[in-house]
Amino acid sequence: MRKRNFTAALLMAFVVVAIILCLLAFPHDGLQAALRGVSIWWDVLFPALFPFFVISEIMLGFGIVHFFGMLLDPMMRPVFRIPGIGGFVMAMGFAAGYPVGAKLTSQLWEQKLVNREEGERLVAFTTSSDPIFLIGAVSIGFFHDASLAMILAVAHYGGSVLIGLMMRFHGRKSLPTAQETKSKGGVWKRAFEAMHSARINDGRSIGTLLSQSILQSLSLIFVVGGLVVFFSVVLEVLTAAKVMNVIYLLITSILQITGLPHELSQAVMNGLFEVTLGAKAAGNAPASLALSSKVAIGAFILSWGGMSVHAQIVSLLSHTNLRYLPFVTARFIHALLSAAIVLVFWEPMQIFRETKSVFLPQYDSASPVLSYLRLMLPISGTVFLGAFSVIVGLFAAYSLLKLVYEKVGGTR
């Protein structure tokens, strides 16, 4: 064990020294990459994530999360093998994007509302892009086609739900978190009692809760920004030093095997490190390439999330006992599923593509912060309600199948 730790530390030291040497050799490239990373953080991530960070902290303090947990428990446990509180995390994760799902999961783990296996299942499928970024930045900003938002959303969020169904088999021998059975009465009564109990246990005044929520959210959003800038710089200097050529050749070979254009190798390589850079490269790929291939790669990158997002997740979960391996495995499978969904359903989904979208708010690139704030409420609200609709629909299907199974002579 000691030898393994020494080898890992030596390898990490070698990587850090190599990055420093590349920065010294290419200072201009590093500076430009850092400025692009800061721009991405300020124009896209800060307005999209910071309000949700604050809101999630306040909702936990008021016990609203516990209310949804009790309400959704009868549906989430049989479908995803996750306590009902995971339904709220799912909706918030889909509406606010990464890394909100991981942040909420780590808080639930701290409060002993989920165990390790349940937390790993939850993080695996609630880590997704927010709809504002998917529509405003990727579909409109990078691909210059708002009508692509529908197929990207189906591939990305549909893939997330499939991952959730697959992850229910993760840790099959682990015991579930005990259900609250102290109070009697209907589910609504128990949900309100759970919310009231959580609020009493929290005990903070409204002013204290708000100020602490803002301070904690500011700290987290600066960590997110720092990671985005760091990976943007690392990717740029390693590319300038030709270190990435080996990975580039490997990606090119894989794309040729799958039948996708090798010209998209740069987009995949960028997306492995930073989702925004990868999605932008996919949207700016040569117009001669098939649009379906470019969108499939875009969906792959969105679902993988990039090492920048992975680093954010690891940072948020560092104080828990949740493991990284289940998460990275789920990310890779999700990326493959999303790309496959785009390619399989590309033709059937063309009926939903219109030359002009009347339902999407306009995105103004000259005022990105205000545009994101205008887009946030209607789009995220729709996804939030859609997530709950998916939970109810899956539970109805599960109940129907269980009923049919019992009618034909099953014992369970």
From TrEMBL:
Keywords: Membrane, Transmembrane, Transmembrane helix. The keyword Membrane applies. The chain crosses the membrane at residues 48-72, 84-102, 122-143, 148-167, 214-238, 245-262, 295-317, 324-346, 375-401. The keyword Transmembrane helix applies. Pfam families: Gate (PF07670). Residues 45-141 form the Nucleoside transporter/FeoB GTPase Gate domain. This is Sporulation integral membrane protein YlbJ. It comes from Paenibacillus germinis.
